[in-house]
Write a structure and sequence with these properties.
The protein is 80% helix and 0% strand. It has helices at residues 2-36, 40-56, 58-76, 80-116, 120-133, 136-152, 158-179, 189-213. 40% of the residues are buried. By secondary structure, it is mainly α. It has one domain (19-220). The chain contains eight helices and no strands. α4 (80-116) packs antiparallel against α6 (136-152).
């Protein structure tokens, strides 16, 4: 009986985490499927552009893991205000790192693609995508931070809703913006970038609103920034 209860508890926590983990993969696959029907050049470009973008933000994922570990520790110690303080300080740090990643993508990627990509058409498509998707770094990183918070305090089911918002927004806008359906302009790979950016923003708005409105989250003192703690651990 105890084993069954433990198994149910593990699955109840892990299923939402699985959803959150595949959310960005869903976005990448959706972009590739739609662009595969748009053009060969765009399909090749999206693979290269996604790889460059992921490398540019890989350090942010490590910071998010650190936030999650400390949040879970504070939650286990029953120190809700310190949970909020950890999240607030981590969000501040992640925002600065995301801005640095955005600048890196926007200013360094043209030099990288000019060296690494021979085809002018593919290079132009990659740069067009990266020029837009670079602004997604902040929102995506903030969403990762929210994921770390909700996993750390064992409220991970909210991530299922967030994943559906991300996926449905991206699918809908890809359909409209890549091909120019429903009165939208036909933008091709730039439409895929705008769809992905809008999906991250929509998810960010949902998670922020949930964090501000839900009564259970008010105990953590989210977004109430205190003095910077250099020894937070």
């Amino acid at each position: 009986m105890k084993v069954q209860i433990a198994s149910k508890s593990i699955w109840r926590l892990s299923v939402p985490i699985i959803f959150a983990g595949i959310s960005e993969t869903i976005v990448d696959i959706t972009d590739a499927i739609f662009l595969g029907h748009y053009g060969i050049t765009e399909l090749g470009a999206i693979a290269l552009a996604d790889a460059i973008y992921e490398v540019a933000i890989v350090a942010l994922a490590g910071l998010v893991d650190g936030v999650q570990i400390v949040v879970a520790r504070r939650a286990g110690q029953d120190r809700p205000r310190d949970v909020g303080h950890t999240f607030n300080q981590g969000l501040h740090l992640l925002a600065l790192a995301a801005l640095a990643s955005t600048a890196l993508i926007k200013f360094a990627s043209p030099q990288l693609t000019s060296f690494a990509i021979e085809s002018d058409a593919v290079r132009l498509a990659v740069n067009s995508f990266l020029h837009i998707i670079a602004w997604s770094a902040f929102f995506q990183t903030a969403n990762f931070a929210y994921s770390a918070l909700y996993v750390g305090v064992s409220r991970s089911w909210v991530l299922v809703v967030a994943t559906f918002i991300l996926a449905l927004t991206n699918i809908g806008l890809d359909y409209c913006l890549i091909f120019g359906h429903l009165g939208f302009p036909r933008l091709g790979i730039e439409g895929a970038a705008l769809g992905s950016l809008a999906a991250e923003i929509a998810t960010f708005v949902f998670l922020t609103a949930y964090s501000l409105i839900h009564p259970a989250m008010k105990t953590y003192g989210l977004f109430r920034f205190r003095k910077w703690d250099e020894h937070l651990s």
